[in-house]
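Memo to structure team: turn this sequence into structure tokens by end of day. - J.P.
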Amino acid sequence: MKQVTVYTTQYCPYCTRAKNLLKSKNIPFQEIDLTDNQAKRDELQAKTGWMTVPMIFIGDDFIGGCDDLYALEASGNLLQKIS
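Reply from structure team:
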């Protein structure tokens, strides 16, 4: 199973929604809180082109944010993607 990594902030409702979906599917994930880590946030922004959180990676693949995760689930491809 590929590692799922979710970069979050403490005040982000979309981060909570993304984590709740993963939990509901019993998909283990690593959460990295960027609330007080501007350097890491800047690094990820340069890597992904995104300024918002959550930033969700499956393995080394950046899949996007909360809406992208829900779209992956709705299409039936989420579990296949992490396998």
